[in-house]
Each structure stands twice: as C-alpha cells, then as structure tokens.
Amino acid sequence: MKTKIGLLYGGKSAEHKVSMQTALAVIKALDFNKFEIHPIYITLDGQWIKGEQLDKPVEHVKELEFGGNQSLPSPGFSPIVFQDGSSESNNTLDVIFPLLHGPNGEDGTVQGLLELLNLPYVGNGVLASSAGMDKVVMKNIFAQAGLPQVSYVAFIRSEWEREPAKVYKSVEDNIGYPCFVKPANLGSSVGISKCTNRTELEAAFGEAFLFDRKVIIEQGVTAREIELGVLGNDDPECSVAGEIVPKKDFYDYKAKYEDGDTGLIIPAEISSDEYFELKKMAINAFKALDCSGLVRADFFLTKDGEFFINEVNTMPGFTPYSMFPLLWKHTNLEYPELIERLVNLGIERHGEKQKIKYTF
Fold first, then answer.
1. What is the pTM of this model?
2. CATH architecture of structural domain 3-121
3. What does 91-158 look like in DSSP terms, one character per residue?
4. Confidence grade of residue 250 (pLDDT, cut at 50, 70, 90)
C-alpha cells in the first residue's frame, strides 16, 4: 500500500524559486514504488493548484508550474483545486510535505491551515515555524535558553522612518562595524547586507525593509561557519558537522542556489569535544523552539574556540547545493531514506497529537 503524499511547493514568497528547486530535487529522490505523489503548486499570487498525480520523476521546474484561471478558494473550504478547475477533498492524502521557504509557508501559516484540516504534515509545527522564521523572536528565545549569541538589535520600519539617524547611531553604539542587516522574517540570505560604514548601513536598511517590516542587525565576527542537521521529534539526533567556506564576504543567495560558489567541508575539521558542544547546543535550540521533524542549526566558531549559535532553519533547502541532505548523507542516511524518515516523523507526530483530549 503506497503512502499518498501531497508535495506543497512554490508559495507567495521571495523564496518561491528556492521552493521550486527543492520540490524538483525531492520528486527526483522519492521512491515511486513506495509513494503516490500528488503535486500541489502555490503560485506567486497565492493561488493553490493541485496537479495530476505523478507517475514518474519530472526533469524541469517548469513541469511543476501549473496554469489555470481558478479563483481563490472561499474561506472554510480546502484551498486545493485541480488544473481543470474541479475540486476534491485532500483528506484522501496520507501526509502533506510542505516544501515551502520563507513567509507564507515556512512561518507557521500553512502549518496552521494543515492543523485545522487535521492533516499529517512533515516538519515543524506552528510555534516552531513562526518563531524560527522571525529571527528576533528566535534569538530572544535562545537568549532565555542560555545559548550564546553575537550581539544584536532590531527595529521596525516605523521607527526607522521617524528617526533614521537615531536608529543608525544606535546600531553604531551597540553593534558597531562590521555588522549584518537582515530582514527578520526571511531566509536564503535574501535582503542581507554586510556593512562597514554609515553609507552602507543606510543602503542596507532600505534593502532589508523591502522584504519585511522588521529588521535585525547582528555583530560581525571573524569565525568559521559550522552547521549541523537535527532530525527527530521528542528524541532528536544530530548529523555530522559541516563547514561552509564562502568565496565571497558571506554565504549569499547566489552562492547558495545558483552558482554553487562556495566550499562545503563535510565532515568539518573540528575536535570531538567541539562536536559534542555543538551537538548539545543544537539539541537545546531544537527543544527551546519545540521543533519537530527537522532543522539545520547554524553556528559560528571563533579562532579562540568560542561557539555562537547563529540561527536554525526549520525548513532547510533540499537543492543539489544544500547542506542539510549532504550532512545526513555523510551520516549514512541517503537522500531517499532521509525523505522517508521525515514523512514517518510527520505521521508519528500527528498520531501523538490525536491523543490530546478536547472535551471534559
């Protein structure tokens, strides 16, 4: 009996293209003898279109972009329609795999919808997804959990628009240069700038506020970038460590998803004691956010041997250049087995939630 899996990808997000690449890679890796695969495409306008069941892997992203002139669904109805305009209950699917990155997909919104539909789904729940997406909230939670981090400050757009000079001075007084300016609710290095002076800082704020109403500014440190994959629900486990060696100032969007202009060292050249410390921090971060399924935990390692947690990604990419599947490949878990494990974890978590009593 095949597991009926709905692959949810695309999305109304600046990371739409990343999601499409992830979907293509996952489809190529899925075992069609084990899974019945139903593609569900979300357009850049936010329209949900369910394509025909796939009977073989697709070769190009364009094959996953379905057309149609269907209107958006009315509230209270499943937001999934077929290419021909007909609708069908998606309750026949055994599990949904959200391959969405960024806002309107990785931030808890889609997860909330799936919870209301009472559908099993892969990956993190509403709380972990939303907290993991908002870098300010995430870092505040990490601080409460006692996890070491670089210094950071945050501002909302209205603060900056009212008193930009005051905001810039606050960054200079509390963070200094170099620093990184980032949209608080985005990933894949979209909208991120490295700043070494006031002129660059002013431009960076304008760029970051194009993508979010809140920005975070982090202290720049000279450090190695080390990442771990975390997998599981209540008893998470970690992959080997990997190191990112960018050929540019930092690991930007183009290096991640387009030209592969970066070096990945797996396993990272660190001591067993350093790995043990990283593993402990990664699991603490996973539990602090109440994560489930998977995260990629990112760290800085300074030349003095000091670790800082940078962030966790609650839905890391699965593209050919992505670190997460490569980490697990070097931990003796191949890509198809990794996907199958994630599907099983999502079904397991859904079953656990069904034990909750809603009447008294």
1. 0.86
2. 3-Layer(aba) Sandwich (3.40)
3. GG-SEEEE---STTTTSSHHHHHHHHTT--BSS--HHHHHHHH-HHHHHHHHHHTT-----EEEEEHH
4. low
